Amino acid sequence: MTVSEVVLAERDGAVGIARLNRPEARNALSADLMERLVEVIEDWDADDDVRCIVIAGGDDYFAAGADIKAMRERSFQETMANPTSVLWSRLAACRTPMIAAVSGFALGGGCELALICDMIVASEKAEFGQPEITLGIIPGAGGTQRLTRVIGKQRAMELVLTGRRVSAQEALAMGFVNRVEKQWFEAAVELAQVVARRAPIAVRLGKQAVQAADETALAAGIAYERRLYELAMATEDRLEGMAAFIEKRRPEFRGR
Ligand code: DAK
Fold this sequence. Notes:
By secondary structure, the chain is α/β, with parallel strands linked by helices. It folds into two domains: 195 residues, 2-enoyl-CoA Hydratase, Chain A, domain 1 (Alpha-Beta Complex); 48 residues, Lyase 2-enoyl-coa Hydratase, Chain  A, domain 2 (Orthogonal Bundle), CATH 1.10.12. Helix content is 49%, strand content 15%. The strands form two sheets. A six-stranded mixed β-sheet has the order 1-2-3-5-7-10, with helices on both faces. β1 and β2 form a beta hairpin. The longest helix is centred in the last third of the chain and has 16 residues. It starts with 6 loop residues before the first strand and ends in a 10-residue tail after the last helix. The model has no long low-confidence stretch (mean pLDDT 96). Bound molecules: 4-(N,N-dimethylamino)cinnamoyl-COA. 4-(N,N-dimethylamino)cinnamoyl-COA (DAK) binds next to α2, α4 and β6.
């Protein structure tokens, strides 16, 4: 199903696949594209049949960042009055796991979009970077915070202050991407299919619990995990999962 030209949305079973589609601008994240993307993701997040989401670009570019031509025209007053960060917060609030499938450039907001996702599968020619400093600004969609948590302060500082790009292999060595694959798109969808087969409530609880590690101190995070674990123990799916193990068969999870 095509939701709009700038974001192509399709389903592969329980996996929703959103493909960024502004090739003439290297998938620069225009307001229109961001609004469509959020709309598609929120629809899937509200749909029990969608268990995992893949956000992909094309072979040569995932996304070249926010639309510099539009940003050039944006005044300080407009930036203050209509913060685009609302759209990014809505993406980050998605409870369904999201996987970024990245080939080519993931720069600026493109890199931040990949970082909002829960996992990243990259092609051998993926390149990541936060080049905002070369434009006289800094990352504004969480890049300084998420990147620092993922790769550490020194490395993040270098990338944010120089705008240097890192290759897929360097990103892999930094723990920034989960895997680098020749068949990057297929590998991302396959990974999403594995998540989609797991018990849906437990998957969402697992996502929340891991996210809490970034957002809370250890003792509070462990207490929160304990609560989420107890919720998982209240599900029918965990009875099914455990019974299936004992009976040596595949579980049939129903999201209850
Ligand atoms: N914006 C607008 N147009 C872009 C663009 C971009 N980010 N990137 C490329 N294009 C356009 C080019 O202007 C060119 O258009 P025409 O000249 O044909 O009209 C066309 O795409 C092809 O670009 P190139 O000729 O440059 O293509 P190449 O393949 O040679 O190079 C490239 C690809 C991706 C390496 C290069 O285009 C590039 O360096 N692009 C800019 C990358 C960049 O600096 N990105 C950071 C942008 S700042 C916030 C949220 C997010 C952000 C900020 C705040 N809040 C929530 C508050 C994010 C900020 C950013 O991302």
